[in-house]
Known about the structure:
40% of the residues lie in helices and 20% in strands.
Amino acid sequence: MKELEFSFELITQDEKARVGKITTPRGEVDTPAFMPVGTLGTVKGIYIEDLISTGSQIILGNTYHLMIRPGTETLDLFGGLHNYMNWQKPILTDSGGFQIMSLAKLNKIDINIGAVFSSHLDGKKFVLSPEKSIQIQKSINSDILMVLDECPKLTHEKEKLISAIDISTSWAKRCKIEFGKNKNKALFGIVQGGLDKDLRLNSLERLTKIDFDGYAMGGLAVGETQEQMFNILNDIVDYMPKKKPRYLMGVGTPSDILGAVKNGIDMFDCVMPTRSGRTGLAFTWEGKLNLRNAKYQSDKTPLDIRNSLRSLNMYSKSYLNHLIKTNEILASMLISLHNINFYQQFMSEIRKEIKKGNFNNFYNKYINKF
């Protein structure tokens, strides 16, 4: 039997909001989709079987961190990250471009070479070139690979933004060559340009000429306001190829997702559900709950009475408040799992409402709660 190829089907639209389906050899992904972040080959504090039970169809891994630990030799030994972590559904990997920004003090950029890093662990020098990034992602055996890009910090300096576009476009071409012809996997380009519409359109035009399987909006969620992010999405998304997935990197909160879906985005990832879970913050249909708050000390109600996943509705807010205050690791695990489950319920409802042509009413009902 012929192995399935990567594909994207646009099923329906409600104004700009879209429902689609990504097909990969390892399974389908319904869009709009939220990808839990498994930076080091684990979605922190969550068992794989529980992650599957939430309805998660795809997760994200981090090229830079997996390159350092466990390293490509170990990943090659297991045939990739899927077998290593016992997750047999699709994986998307970022390229290391975000770490070029976040670990800027530890690297130098050369358009002809790539990023020359000092490891954040032991200071060891290594080069992350466009070719190397793709090679590492192939060792991870990712289903969706990202091009290496320069993701600048929030700036209005056109010279810096233009430079980032030039570098990112040059590296994107090299990534496409290194990726080669592989219809079972996908390679996404990353649009840069900060909050400047003309620069974003220039970046997008140059990337579409190279021709990628999907397109991501990079360089957002780096300190701009939510309104600024929505404005640039509104300016650019209509120009992105209609029949290919659109991915907003590193986003975000439920309200970020609502606004981005309203502007035509299909894919999201963020550490928010698990990072918030580790600090006692829960996302619910009634909004955010800070379970550290003393008002929950005597609250007998569960976070979500409808949630039967791992019997999470058996635990009262009072008990979770107690676990947090006594620094019990179970608090992080329970709230993180709850948050991932909520995010997947949230995405499922978004898809249903788009299909019904009712997304704007859903948006208006929940945007202020989040």
